Amino acid sequence: MTVVAKSTRPKVVDVARHAGVSTATVSRVLNNNPRVDPEIAERVRASLSELGYRMNSVARSLRRQSNSVVGVIVPDIANPFFTDVVRGIGDALRDDGYMLMLCNSDDDTDLEASYLRLLSAQQVSGVIVAPADSLRSDLTELTSTGVPVVVIDRLAGTGDFDSVVFDNRTGAAQLTARFVEAGRRRIAHIAGPERTFTGSARREGYLEALAAAGIATDGALIVDSDYSEEGGYRAVRELLASSTPPDAIVIANNAMTLGAIRALTELDVDPETIALASFDPVPWSTSQRYSLVVLDHETMRMGTEAAALLVARIGEPSREPEIRRLSAGTVAVFAD
Amino acid sequence: MTVVAKSTRPKVVDVARHAGVSTATVSRVLNNNPRVDPEIAERVRASLSELGYRMNSVARSLRRQSNSVVGVIVPDIANPFFTDVVRGIGDALRDDGYMLMLCNSDDDTDLEASYLRLLSAQQVSGVIVAPADSLRSDLTELTSTGVPVVVIDRLAGTGDFDSVVFDNRTGAAQLTARFVEAGRRRIAHIAGPERTFTGSARREGYLEALAAAGIATDGALIVDSDYSEEGGYRAVRELLASSTPPDAIVIANNAMTLGAIRALTELDVDPETIALASFDPVPWSTSQRYSLVVLDHETMRMGTEAAALLVARIGEPSREPEIRRLSAGTVAVFAD
DNA sequence: ATGAAAGCGCTAACAG
DNA sequence: CTGTTAGCGCTTTCAT
């Protein structure tokens, strides 16, 4: 086995010596400062590559008092919705030279708070966070220390931040109206938690569409659930236990939709008698048995918008907080 | 709108002054150094919280020449397999006080290389990487600068690293044998790229099981594919175009399995006539129409093992590289 | 047990 | 256009 000499990384001073210039000049070359004699710059670059110089970003960050790292906190990285958002963020920020520090809060405000603290300690340039709990999540720790923050998916209760959210109300209304037009009348709703931003907005949209169509709302057709697969499963079992079961269900998120499909399959419900509509991408789903439409949210766009907002704020920390509401989206027929 | 004073963060020197001690003492308290007078330590802690001190990890990292950050590079964060692995890594490393810097190489060796460079510049304590291309991925950049590396999922071609891989050969053999025992005889295989570590191993396992059962291999039953959803879809269409179609298919990964199911559904193949087996978690899949078994790999364990290996190497950089081969896993009946 | 002081690697005034 | 120099905030010998 060959023993590789732990070749100590060359530093700017080594490069400077090698190129016969000062460290300042090397630093200028490193930062593409235009006022360096092209010939000297070339010599420095030669030394740079000859010595195999590698920047120490930690030192640079300390000196510059800013880091090219952005923190991202999501409640569940396994959820396709958030993976898409994160991809959007990553793609957009890479162009600006930022790296991502991705954290999974697991929907736990304590864990979230601890990540917030860690990110702040890491002197990240900014943080994009999908709050675990829009009411209890505490972002003041960051804002008080002047770290730029962008909130996504759910609006944060306290304070005003740059935010990117979907127009969930209109989206839900769209899905519901679609069923109405298709002649469905017993349209149920498996709702997300009332206290969540998305949950309450989607419920409102559902109710609004029913009202607009002149269909009386039936309390028995609205099941409060919790955004979990299991919750969706239980909700469907509850809805179908009724003597007058629904002929369509608007489901407030992707995980519950999977649970719902599982329940329908298990109960062997005739696909002709029921139609489903859901939010958020469900890319790994393959049930082609039950009719399912999903609201195509352009999820990655939420990420790119958030990134743009963050970059804008980093550039101008005192700008007014801006809330971007992304249009409801288009209905995508997923299976029929 | 209230203007929040951009309260400049207190530094150790501020705390020291406030507590009437030296910066060294504050630092010792910060690091739980036992040889500090308990009374003084208490006083320092009081100042710490009174002033709302927040550690600047960048400065600490520069001084300590080490960072409590670990880089993780995966080819596709949207793949449930990798999300699970990342969760495993995250959970395990959080206990050791590390944060994760997650990068998505998008199966692109160039992007991967650039992340490798960035992570190295960030002075991360170590890197866990699932190489985009086990042959062309270049990890020497890291190893030459002494950054601990753990390779997961696929073995890296050049050099020997700490690695964690599944026993893919045995796993594929297990799935295949299961079909044989169930009386199936025309068992097909939708294979991953031959040059990939997992692809070739799974193919070998499949062939091995057939040989062990004394079943002649039929070239027409083996379709080379590319691990993509679309690839799985095309493979099934190809297999079913035959006059003697398979009665079972061993599919080399989760994405191709989804494509396969889509094709079967589209062709409206009788579920009784075909059975599927797949690798990797497919948690968001909900097809209960076709019989599907998957190899339960304990995916998160790959993450925790990788984390353990990395921590071990950080602690003892000169230890011999170790390759952990995780047992094939148990067959999980996913739908029947 | 505590403090003084040096210095991690880099950048940005400031001079020249 | 280039060099000198003073730190960024923290930790850690080395004295005391």
UniProtKB/TrEMBL annotation, chains A, B:
PROSITE patterns: HTH_LACI_1 (PS00356), HTH_LACI_2 (PS50932)
Database matches in SUPFAM superfamilies: lambda repressor-like DNA-binding domains, Periplasmic binding protein-like I
Superkingdom assignment: Bacteria
Keyword Repressor found: yes
UniProt keyword annotations, A-Z: DNA-binding, Repressor, Transcription, Transcription regulation
InterPro entries attached to this UniProt entry: HTH_LacI, Lambda_DNA-bd_dom_sf, Peripla_BP/Lac1_sug-bd_dom, Peripla_BP_I
HTH lacI-type domain sequence ranges: 10-64
SMART domains in UniProt: HTH_LACI (SM00354)
UniProt-recorded name of the protein: LacI family transcriptional regulator
Native organism: Conyzicola nivalis
